[in-house]
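Today's session is about reading a structure prediction critically. Students often jump straight to the picture, but the first step is always the sequence itself: look for stretches that repeat, for charged clusters, for runs of hydrophobic residues. Only then move on to the predicted structure, which in these notes is written as discrete structure tokens rather than atom positions. Here is the chain we will use throughout the hour.
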Amino acid sequence: MKNIAFLFLIVLYWNMSVGQPIIIDHNCSKLEPIPEWAVLQARDSLHIAYGHTSHGSQLTTGMTALANQDTNLIGYKGDIYCWDYYWEPGVFECLDIDDYFRSGDLGHNGDTTWAASTRDYLKNDPYSGDINVIMWSWCGGCSDNTVQGIQIYLDKMNELEQDYPDIHFVYMTGHRDIWSDDTLKRNNQLIRDYCVANNKILFDFADIESYDPDGNYYEYANDNCNYYDENINYLGNWATEWQNSHTEGVDWYNCYAAHSEPLNGNMKAYASWWLFCRLAGWDGSSANQISLDLKLMTEGAFNGTNMNTNLNTSGLIPLSQPFNSSPWNYNGTESVSPIPNSNIVDWVLIELRDATDASLALPGTIIARQAAFLLNDGSIVDTSGTSVPVFNHSLVHSLFVVIRHRNHLGIMSAYPLTESGGIYSYDFTTPAGQAYNSGQKNIGGIYVMYSGDANADGEINDLDKSESWLTETGLPGYLPSDLDMDGQSNNIDKNDVWLQNKGVNSEVPD
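Below is the predicted structure for this chain, in token form.
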């Protein structure tokens, strides 16, 4: 039996939440915003009984694989996502889920076996005494159900809530089914409307698997993530397409998801933790919105006061972010048309790391990346050309920022960014030592990123000359060997920039 203080916490939170529904949909299928404290609080305060068959297992198999990931996964906050059937204070404190607590699922066409099984479990099972969350999922029953059958489901759930007011009963929609699309959509919407109107808790299974992680909606889709046109002509599989264009172990992880793809299991796992954290007291909006006010200079464009915009005025800056190849392998979709600000110098790649100290801000602490524009005064703006970059992420420790440029050595903040009014600020240009391990060049008291890393391997050496400059010299364009960023590769780049910096390496802890 759990600590009475935690039971009081859960009851108190539920009483405070009455008056508004808790809707877990595709907007909740993200790991990054969920704070560590909320995960730990869910583990300490929830006992869950979950009834399902194969489709419903996507939640728990996704959660199992999530618990075995490492810190390279974006948003992953360490070894905190474990769950099991057993819980004992001070001994084994993973999230307690009595999985398959009764056989079956929500059935078909008014079947209420699940409701009778729930009552029997709560009355007679010796391990049900501390249960405070009960969930049942569908496995095809929404696809062929009638309006009357859905109403019976809603009525039975409401009766259970009335009879067991200290238990949270979680409603669900049914999985996508292209072969019963109209019926399924009608039935799922009946469930959604009821939950919103009556302030219920809803895990919107169908909505979660209707969107990819970038928010693209698939109107005609199946539970295996195949999507179609309105005439049911097959177009593709949104999950495998997204997986193939992103990095396994960083953007997504492999897991078993019955009838479906790993990415769907990922999203169900994230949404499950979002649900449990909401029930444990998280308000769902306490994730930090990180707005960045940054200043830096690149040596190549620096003119002693600010930076030249030759690449911009010559029309050479690409409209889409240029970091989608090795070594950056950034899959962001940032693009513009046209370049939005005449003061733009070039693209840069922002990387956020969450660590206790700069020396520990290793690649495993990366929580987000974003391509942005560098202005001639040293400020960094998003693709609007005017607004500061914003990230919707939680912080566990302190925030460090890495800035990368296609032919300059990357830099990382030597100190955590300071926050004021929701804005995290950092000036790399002054004083000395603002970049980790003093990884910048001093030009007249202004500290700038070292230019010369034409092949972007983190070292300024002979390879930059042989692999880039020798093949591009004499050419105009947006070129890696254009080290002074004037739109032309020539001897000035080699003699005045590369040769002066030869032997310098990046100090970013990669």
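Discussion point for the tutorial: Residues 21-279 form a domain with the Rossmann fold fold (CATH 3.40.50).
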